[in-house]
Amino acid sequence: MKEETFPSDAPVAASRITRRRMAVLTFVVFTTAVMTMIMADLIWGMAMRGWNGVMLAMFALLSSLVAFGASQALFGFISRRGSGDSCQIGRSLSEGGRRAPGDGMRRGETETAARRSVATWDSLPPDEESVPLAPTAVVMPICNEDVDRVYAGLKAIYRSLARTGQLAHFDFFILSDSTDPDKWIAEEIAWAQAGRELDARGKLFYRKRRLGTNKKAGNVADFCRRWGRRYRYMVVLDADSFLSGKTLVQMNRLMECNAGVAILQTAPALFRGETLYARIQQFAMRLYGPIFVAGLNYWQQGEGNYWGHNAIIRLAPFIEHCALPRLPGREPIGGKILSHDFVEAALLRRAGWEVWMLPDAEGSYEEGPPTLIDTAKRDRRWCQGNMQHTLLLLAPGLPPISRIHFLLGIFAYVASLVWLVSLVLGTLLLVGFGRTGLTWMPNPGFAATLGLKPEIQATVLLSITLLLLFGPKILAVIDLFLQPGGARRFGGVGRVLAGVFLESLFSALQAPILMLWHSKFVVMTLLGRGVRWLTQRRAGEERLPWAELLHAHASHTVIGLAWALLLEHAAPRMLPWLAPVLIGLIFSIPLSALSSRVRLGRATRRRGLFCIPEELAPPEELAELDRMPETSPVETEVPLEAGPDRGLVRAILDPYINALHLCLLRDRSSQQAEEIRQYFEENREKLLREGPSQLAAKEKLALLLDAESVYWLHRELWRRRPSDLGAEWQLALDWNRRSRMA
């Protein structure tokens, strides 16, 4: 790699980033200090002995987190004014744009790495089209996902990329860890069908791992070991992700123009939400997201974070530096790293590479959870992964900003436990005052000498808190209205304001529900109770089962009712103050049930509520994705009776599917020990004589992984008399004969 001399203004760039971070820190510290001093003056005179300090510490922590969130919106709003933030990596492709030199040498960086990171944009071609593209792999790790949705999204991305004329630089990989035989076989058939439909021979690849070691991180690592050195970049997608062809090309060119960048992360917007809950979430993210993302980029610069998908990665440094360590101790805190993305970004930063956010990128999307319960299931995994990062906070060599990313991820869940403890402690203290009849503030605070009553202090404190909570939403609406035609993209001013009001109401009601869930997740993780990795429910249903609703929210309802009755009996004056928390808990079941309805979501769309620009004026790629049939054509070519063993039956019965499956397996029979060979022979005979239902799931999966067994079963199934086969095989053969005669 050609080395550049240090630009003369590299110290200016370093001081600029320092000023930005000091501005954010000053806002957070000043706001937290003001709120903490008011709170300290309020509780200092309370007869709580040592609890005063505990309450104040928890309040200061929560206030700082709220202030930090508000600072993202404030500085993001400011940076978007005028011509926008001049320190965005996207400017390196704009005409006349110039990247401000990097951050200079940071502690721990070699001189070579520092020189690489401060390459200037002055020498770039003036025309974006003249920037050549490098070989790039688009990888999509999946595990028991909806096959139709996976391939519909992949085909839409492929065609979008083809329309840019740059398809030759990209290859696509489906990396499967599916353990459901039905999903596995359907993936293979859909891959073959997509290859024919797209004429993608040599461009679209499928691999099924024999062992799903280390989940998604292990799947990506397996790809890097096998094919990573053939490509310069890797674009990582989730099963529900979407990136337009134009965005893929832009990301590739940005990486080519910035040789010191290892990861370029887009900010995906939620889309295709059908339930009321999903539509509210995607409206909120689409409206509020731009200023928050701009605020992140404002202070992160080249020390950003990786979110695990919708990002482009430079493969050489990723392969060299991002082998994940095994944490000391047992799971869930120790063991294999669950949330790998934060760690990979930190390892690359430690090696001197930059990680950037691309805040202004269009065409990056993902689908969100359809219900509140599904959000909790996802958060359960994220919570455990983030709690593991406590063991990495003091890891040697990590940049300070990476440690801050770890801390913010941890406190995203620990803050709920702190909030819950502070509310419970405050309630118990008020109950104690009510039972003893003591005055809650026998000694006046400092504000009393200025003639300020405690009620005024409490009102000021509440006002500041509400401003920090709802101010970012107000700024986001102002930012939208300042854009030409901005409100029209969301359906008009009236619908935007109505959507913000209803979304804020819904967020206030769901906040205490998430507080209890997150508190439970943190405690369970600390007690050593891990989480199983389950496939996410990505599509909404018309009605959630009442059993699922009761299981998820019964404890919320009971806690909310008991809490309200306790206050009514012992401290009735506090009921209005805690009403937002109590109402959300008491009505958690109907709130979750109604928000999960697809019918209500579609009703809001017909009325123009919670609409996003991609719904009112969908881009060509998304419109094409919506036109994809719900059932893939390949599913109707070889229809069989549905059942838990459908995939296994299809792979053994149908000659085409059997041949396709065999082509994707490696023949390992020569490497098998005698005991293993005998194991397969016994299970093959049992499968044909007694039927698939008589074998355990791991036995059926093992047979499908063994090429010799798959071939033998297909041959023997068609050679034997039906009377020598199990009843399930006889039904399958009879259906096959009747379908061919029809």
Could you please describe the fold and organization of this structure?
This protein is an alpha/beta fold and 742 residues long. The protein has a domain at 641-741. Helix content is 59%, strand content 6%. The chain has 28 helices and ten strands. It has helices at 10-43, 51-79, 111-117, 147-163, 181-198, 215-227, 245-257, 276-300, 315-321, 340-350, 372-388, 400-436, 454-482, 486-489, 493-526, 546-570, 575-586, 588-595, 598-606, 613-616, 620-627, 633-637, 646-653, 655-663, 674-690, 697-705, 707-719, 727-741, and strands spanning 136-142, 170-176, 204-208, 233-236, 241-243, 261-266, 269-270, 311-314, 354-358, 364-366. Strand 1, helix 4 (147-163) and strand 2 form a beta-alpha-beta unit. Helix 8 (276-300) crosses helix 15.
> Which percent bin holds the helix content?
55-70%
Strand order of the largest sheet: 3-2-1-4-8-6-9
| Number of strand elements | 10
Number of helices: 28
Parts with pLDDT < 50 across at least 5 consecutive residues: 1-9, 95-126, 631-642
Gross morphology is globular
- Average pLDDT confidence is 86
